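DM from R.C. (forwarded with permission)

"hey, sorry to bug you on a friday — could you get me a structure for this? deadline for the figure draft is monday and I only need the backbone to look sensible"
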Amino acid sequence: MSESLAPHRERLLWLVAIAFFLQSLDATILNTALPAMAQSLGQSPLKMQSVIVAYSLTTAMLIPASGWVADRFGTQRVYATAIALFVLGSVLCALSPNLGFLVAARVVQGVGGALMMPVGRLAVLRSHPKGEFIRAMSFIAIPGQVGALLGPTLGGALVEVASWHWIFWINVPVGLFGMWATRRWMPVGAEQPRRSFDGWGYALLSFGMVAVSVALDGLSGMGLGTALVAVLMVFGLASLAAYWMHALRVPEPLFPPALFSVRSLRVGLLGNLFARFGSGAAPFLIPLLLQVGLGMSPFHAGLMMLATVVGSMLVKRIAVRTVQRYGYRRVLQVNSVLLGLVLASFGLVSPQQPLGLLLAQLFVFGGINSMQFSAMNSVTLKDVEGEFASSGNSLLSMVQMLSMGMGVALAGALLGGFSDVWSALGDQSLRAIHATFATVGLMTLASTLVFSQLDGDERVRPAPDSGD
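My reply, with the result:
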């Protein structure tokens, strides 16, 4: 690319960075506001997980189709439409009169979010030489970290100063600027060769993910009967199995079965799935512990959660050296145990506990969680090359969002079940939160068994992670 186009490449980086900022801010600002939203909508704060699950599941569903959609309609058009849908979803969220409307609005937001980040990365990949791509991705990840840093405290402040509706209204001016900048700065892109899309495979995979996730969410008492939950789970698993058999016999499946011949990718994907059942539930559970269990204000809880962000950012700087020294298998085995233990330790938090000790717990959790994400993401993709690189990246992104949504759904189901057990006690909310933390910590230990399947001598430098 000529030097005269360099300023346009730089503006494109800032434009894609907007998507990273919007998504990380939206995710972290929402968690702190959930208890206030529950009170406003007449819901139990322990049963608000559907707001998070709806977004995560929608994003996971659409990620496999994002590359084909961008090739079919053009990166500029799709990116602008994605931001518009995200803004529309934000407006609908802010206007929501009840939980059902809010969940539907989050689905609209999820459609936009599912296209924003993958299509943005694709535009950067196509406009930057290979040697500059890693630097470009590192640059656009910084606003995502800023969004994660601002989110918890800003969410708490907005809830106290104004109302929870403003955590969605603030997306509107940023999104409108992003739409304008997309038309001005994002290249239309060269015509891409038409390629077929495995629509039947996509339908099987999407239905399977939705059915299993909704069944898990139904366990928390969202209005689904036990029989319907069981039926959804069976049909969901059957649909996923049917997708796998379908992929084995069609020439161009969504995810080629040969992709799974890469050992590190198989282990990394399964490890991501099980590890995120616990770590994915934590951003939902920690604000409940702080506000519902310990009685903190939203702003105070947001300030406390900054400790997790600081711990995460500090550990990212030593993640590469740690894996280089000890290898992926040892790091992930030990770190998975530590992650499970620190999650379970939140089950011991009490109102009498010194504030400094709680801050230390949050800081340590942020650091261990960051190490887990960095190592998991990089080991999954480190051996995926050539024609499988794009599919492997999309598959990892899908599993990340799916497992996070499933983790929150499981946490909601556990909260509902434990709340019923202690319903006769005055402090059942704190007891239920304690028991849920202990259970998700125990479930996280399962990922240790998966990561033990890695080769013991792998010490390759981790690739830049996706902003986790």
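R.C.: lifesaver. The CA atoms of residues 347 and 434 lie 4 Å apart.
me: no worries. The chain has three domains: 1-188, 199-253, 261-468.
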